Amino acid sequence: MQNIRCRLVGVLCALGLATGVGVGTAAEVAADTGSSGSSGSVEIYLPIPTPAGMQALTAAMTQLGRPYEWGGTGPWSWDCSGLMQWAFSTAGIRLPRTSQEQARVGHSIPLSALAPGDLIVFYRDASHIGIYAGFGQVFNAYGPNGAPIGFTPLNHWSHIKTIRRLG
């Protein structure tokens, strides 16, 4: 059984997929397969949503159509990071207030592992954040002031700084 696990882990790593599931140290894997290697852990990430991410996405989407307001923290209007902070709080996760701070929480994952409920931070200065909704759509609060909160195609954004998975 361990040999199958080791082969699966190797295939997933070769494909560049990822879940945050620890697979043991290289020494443990080597002991199972009879090969030698250096110690260290390997994390893989798969495009599988976390329960907390899905709960936050569901909460965020209840705000569809509410107006964007720079500095808005709800409940009648939101800015991007205020909406993410509130949405994740419904899942029991406390996020810092700004998108720059939120860009450092959770686990960084590759684009190939993007799943609904993951935070996506945009621009080099991390000045915008949204939550991936699936099907190439990001749910976000995006200005100018008064613009309705909703979905924006992922390919609309010119630069993804990081993708973060929580929960």
TrEMBL record:
<comment type="similarity">
    <text>Belongs to the peptidase C40 family.</text>
</comment>
<dbReference type="InterPro" id="IPR000064">
    <property type="entry name" value="NLP_P60_dom"/>
</dbReference>
<feature type="domain" description="NlpC/P60">
    <location>
        <begin position="50"/>
        <end position="167"/>
    </location>
</feature>
<dbReference type="GO" id="GO:0006508">
    <property type="term" value="P:proteolysis"/>
</dbReference>
<protein>
    <submittedName>
        <fullName>NlpC/P60 family protein</fullName>
    </submittedName>
</protein>
<dbReference type="InterPro" id="IPR051794">
    <property type="entry name" value="PG_Endopeptidase_C40"/>
</dbReference>
<keyword id="KW-0732">Signal</keyword>
<dbReference type="GO" id="GO:0008234">
    <property type="term" value="F:cysteine-type peptidase activity"/>
</dbReference>
<keyword id="KW-0645">Protease</keyword>
<feature type="signal peptide">
    <location>
        <begin position="1"/>
        <end position="26"/>
    </location>
</feature>
<dbReference type="InterPro" id="IPR038765">
    <property type="entry name" value="Papain-like_cys_pep_sf"/>
</dbReference>
<keyword id="KW-0788">Thiol protease</keyword>
<dbReference type="Pfam" id="PF00877">
    <property type="entry name" value="NLPC_P60"/>
</dbReference>
<keyword id="KW-0378">Hydrolase</keyword>
